[in-house]
Each structure stands twice: as C-alpha cells, then as structure tokens.
Amino acid sequence: METSKNLILGVYDNPDKTYSVTKKLISSGYSVYDVYSPFAIHGLDRVMGIKRSRLSVAAFLFAMTGLSLAVTFQVYVSYFDWQMNIGGKPSLHIPTYIPITFELSILFTAFGMVACFFIVNRMFWGKNADIMDIRVTDDLFVVAVDTKKSKADLGSLNQLLMDGGAIEVRERTKEL
Amino acid sequence: MEHAEVHIREEKYQITEGNKKWAFGLMIVGLILAAIGYFTYHPHIEGLSEHDLHHLTTKRLLANLLVNGYFFFIVSICAAVFIAISQIANAGWYVAIRRIPEAMSEYTLIGGPILILITIFGLPILYHWAHEGIMTEGASNYDALLAGKSWYLNKPFFIIRMSAYFAFWIFCAHMFRKYSRNEDEIGGLTNYHKTYNLSTAFMVVFAFTFSMYSWDQMMSIDAHWYSTIFSIYNFATGWVSAITIIYLFTHYLRGKNYLNVATDEHQHDLGKFMFAFSVFWTYMWVAQFLLIWYANIPEEVAYYKTRLFGSYKFLFYFVVLVNFLIPFFFFMRRDFKRSRAVGFFVGGALLIGHWLDVYLMTMPGAMNLATDPSDAHPAGIIQVPFQGVGIMEVGFLCLFAGLFLWVTLKALTKANLYPTKHPYIMESALHDVGI
Fold it and tell me: Chain A residue closest to B333 (CA)?
C-alpha cells in the first residue's frame, strides 16, 4: 500500500470556480483526491462522485445493539435475578421497559456514531492534523489532484487549473 | 453555479374531470353510506332500555360528525401552522410546495363553522358534563366533581371560547394566503415581512389556545379524566396528518407534471418530517400511557380501562402499530421517502391510523350513557361496548374527505402553484439534501 500521495493543488477564492473546475477536471479524466472548502458547497459531492455514507447503517446496528442489551439486562434483573413487587405490576411487562430501552438505544447510537466517525476519518488522540492548506480554514478553496491515478496528461493540468481561475497552483505530498 | 436550469412558471392548477368525480363521488357515496348506516343501526345491548338504545343512534351520528369535523379541522389548521413555523424559521426549502398547505388551510373557512355547529348540537348529547342536572345541586344525577368545574365547563363559555379561537386562527390562515397571493402580483419583501410578523403572533397564541381547545373539544368528553400531555399529543396527531397530506399532494401534483420546481429532495424532506413526527407522536402517546399506567390512580386509569381492557382493545393496539411501526420501518430508508409507491402506502396508512386515533379519543367517552350515580355506576356512566367501525363511520369519513379534497383542489386553482416572486423560490428550486 502506498504511504504518501503526490498531489497538485489548485487554490481558489470562489466556491463557484471551485465547483466548475472540479467538474471539468473529472470530465477530462483527472482524479480529484479531494476538495477542501471552509463550508459545504451544494452539489459538489455529486460531481465528485462521492458514495453515500454508510454511517446510517452503522447507526442502525448500534441502535439494535443498545436495544437488545437493554432488554436483556432488564429482563435478567427484574425477572430472573430478583423480582420485586412495584405497585403490583408484573415483573415481566413490556411497558416498563420502554423508557430504558429507548434511552439505551439512543445512547449506543450516539456514542457509536461518534466513534465510527473518528475511526473512519482517522482522528486519534495525539495525531496531528495534516491540513492541506491552512487558508482553507479561512476563506480559500483547494482542489487536490492525485497525479498517480489521473489518466489524462499532467502537462496540461497546470493550464486547466489556471484557466479555472486559480490564484495559485503548487505541488504537495500528503502522508497517509 | 452550474445547475440544471430552473424555469419559474406561472401556472395554475386545472381541476380535471377525475378530480370532480372523486371529490363529489366521495361526498355522495359518503352521504349515502352514512344514511344507510344511520338507519340500519339498531343496537342490542343487554340491560339497556329502548329509550337508551334509541339515544345511542343519535350519539353515534353526532360522535361521527365530531370525529371527522375535528380531524379535518385540526389538519387544515396545522397546515397554517406549517406555513407559520417555516416562515419564522426563515426556511427556504418549503417555498416550492408552500401553496399546498395554503390551499389546505382554506378548508378552515368551511370546516370551522361546521365544527362549531356540530359542537352546538352535540354538546348536550356527547359531553357528559353538559347533561341536564349534572351541575345542579339536589338533582338526581348531581355530580359534585363536575359541578366544581362549572365555572369553566359551561355551555356558553365553551362556545364563546371555541368561536374566539377559531376566529383568530382562521383570520391568520386567511391573511397568510392573502399576503402570499398578493406577493405574486407585486413582488418585493413587504408581504414576506408581514407574514413573518403575523406568524410570530399566530404561533404564540396558537400554542396556548390549541392546548385549551383540545382540552375542551376532546378531553372534556371524558369529563372526569385529565392528562397534562393531552394537547401536545393532539397537536402531534394533526401535525403528522397535515404533513402527510402535503406529502401526498406533492407526489400527486408532480405526477401530473405540475410543480416543476419541486423535486425528490422536497419529497425527501417532507418524508423526514413524517418520520420524525410519527416518532414524536409515539413518544407523546407512550408518555401519556406509561405514566397513567404506572401510577394507577383510579380517576386517571378510567380512560385507559375502557380502551385497554374493553372491546376497544384491538383498535387501541392497532393504532399504535400503524402510526409507529409503518412509518418507522418504511421511512427509515432514504429511497422509500422518495418513492411514489411506498410514499402513497405509508401516507395512506398514517392518515387512516391518525383518523382512527381521533376516533379512539372520541368514541368510548361520547358513546357512554348517562345515568344516576349509584353503587353499580359510581361515575354516573354506563359503559357502552365498541360498536364497530361500520358503514356509518366509513360514510362520514368519505363525506368529509371529499369535502376537504374539493376545497383544497379548488383553492389550488386560485393562485399560481408556487409563489413565483417569493424571495426564497430559487433557493427552494435548487434545494438539495445531498447524497
């Protein structure tokens, strides 16, 4: 597996330019590694061909885990292990389990999704963030082209990025 | 930004022959079914006198009118709430479909007076507290508990309250429509700001008045019983149903090649609303049920005893299953919220479920017969078992559904199908919820 990527960055000052240059790059056969923007640009995800996140599936599985654990625990505690008479209610009765089951499902979903998000994005404690260009945290936009995966001619890439209105084009290596 | 080109079209809905057939067909068939149901209803319940049984027929007729009048009225007023909430939130996405809730809210003009009429006729028959003598000391059926509430629960005050609420709500809904239609002509931001200001006032007043209104109209049917979460639960019923109808209308109009600015994205967001507020409805339902069930205080449990252990048992569970499980498991998927076929299935199921929910709130209390308090009937009430959802119920549902459909479709023809000069119309047309 490769450990670093050679990228060519085009820096833009306008979301519309970023959007149209990304579209043009992809249609000309370049591989866009990622686009960095201070805010979400509508429609960009579709242009980049990003697949739908599977986070919702993970969320459902976490919820089911929480639900089954909650039901198991409550049935064990209140029926098998130590029955108690509370207001004359039966020990094994579904309505009493609803609030705790509901809360635990949500708790597991919330924590599980946050954990998933960190793992998928490789955000660990102590890891330094490798920011593509510090200015994308403020007012600029960066389109990063993967040189190895791109099928089109890299010689004309510079011209294409500049034509799209780039204020700067440069090379960069990103450690994975 | 390069996007698909959006053309803002000025088009009005044209009522088709099919629409007419459906709306009037529903009304006529409904009326016939209701009449058949009414004249063929001869209850036989042991231990009841001939007079009581005759009284039961009237009760069932008026209770049906109340169920449908209430259901369709709260749906149409919740459509006005939808406009007000979106306006206050400065929402942009909903503008493409805004004329649908506007059209639905036009039903309040007819539904409000109808409901007031039903209530005037139904008060002494359906509402236990409004019976003759209940609040008169010394009468044979005197009920001290209800007499203590007489300063609030009395007929003149009840009707005055109700009329005042309705007048304000219907006025606001009317002004929303007026501003919106005026905007199509003059453009600019004047009407936008006016709607915003009125929406804030409407929402504050509505929150309080709807609570009180639902206590009056629905909770006071079981006059001994009270629940503090009842009004928000009723609001959830109306709100989910209103959004479901907006969702179905959007699907329908898009299928007829109207509403070119509304896309699957709008459908998706409305679907999310249906999903979210179905869960919200269930939350309210469980919150009300669980506390009363756990605390087990006799005066509170009475409401659930008739529904949970009596002949209403099946309906009681059925309503929860339909209103929770169907939207929860079908609309959890993204592509189902966008699908026309699944959308119609879930939407239809939700509407039936919430109608049955209103039915279940009304019927057991409204069908009860009054008697003198005794050891056998300490609350002065004879429980009447479930009389079934028969042709009378179906008939009245069809009648009101046809009326609602007709008024809404007619209202859609009165203005452009979407507000062409609304400041957010382009934002709404380009609305995108992402991948």
Answer: A56
Cβ distance B1 to A19 less than 8 Å, yes or no, reads: yes
Residues of B in contact with A43 (CB under 8 A): 1, 3, 432
| Closest-CA residue of chain B to A60 | B332
Mutation site for A-interface testing, chosen from B6, B263, B292, B293 by largest number of A Cβ within 10 Å: B293
Note whether A48 and A32 are within 8 A (CB). Answer: yes
Q: Which segment, B84-93, B137-146, B306-315, B384-393, is predicted with the most confidence on average?
A: B84-93
To the nearest whole Å, the CA of B410 is away from the closest chain A CA by 37
B293: nearest CB among A51, A52, A95? A95
Provide the CATH topology of domain A4-50+126-175: Alpha-Beta Plaits (3.30.70)
Say yes or no to pLDDT of B205 above 60: yes
Task: Name chain A contacts of B332, Cβ cutoff 8 Å.
Answer: 60
| Closest CA of chain A from B420, distance in Å | 23
Summarize the confidence of residues A116-132 as an average pLDDT: 85
Summarised one tens digit per residue, pLDDT across range A3-12 is 788 899 999 9
Give the pLDDT confidence of A89-121 residue by residue, as tens digits: 888 888 889 999 999 999 999 999 999 989 988
> Domain ranges in chain A?
4-50+126-175, 55-120
- Which pLDDT belongs to residue B194? 95
Distance from CA of A95 to the nearest CA of B (A): 7
**B2/A60 CB distance under 8 A:** no
C-alpha span between B207 and B164 (Å, rounded): 14
Helix B264-295 and helix B298-308, axial crossing angle in degrees, nearest 10:
120
Amino acid (one-letter) located at B282: T
Q: What is the pLDDT of residue A85?
A: 86
Phi, psi of A175 (to 5 degrees): -75, 135
Is pTM beyond 0.80? Reply is yes
**C-alpha to C-alpha distance for B343 and B275, rounded to whole angstroms:** 11
What CA–CA distance (Å, rounded) separates A99 from A66? 13
pLDDT greater than 50 at residue B1: no
User: Could you write out the DSSP letters of every residue in A44-74?
Assistant: HHHHHTPPPPSHHHHHHHHHHHHHHHHHHHH
> Do B290 and A98 count as a contact with CB atoms less than 8 A apart?
yes
- B2 to chain A: which residues are within 8 Å by CB? 19-20, 23
**pLDDT tens column, A28-84:** 889 999 999 999 888 888 899 888 888 889 999 999 999 999 999 999 999 999 998
Q: How far is residue B71's CA from residue B111's CA, in Å, rounded to a whole number?
A: 10
pLDDT at B4: 60
Do B434 and A45 make contact, defined as CB atoms within 8 angstroms?
yes
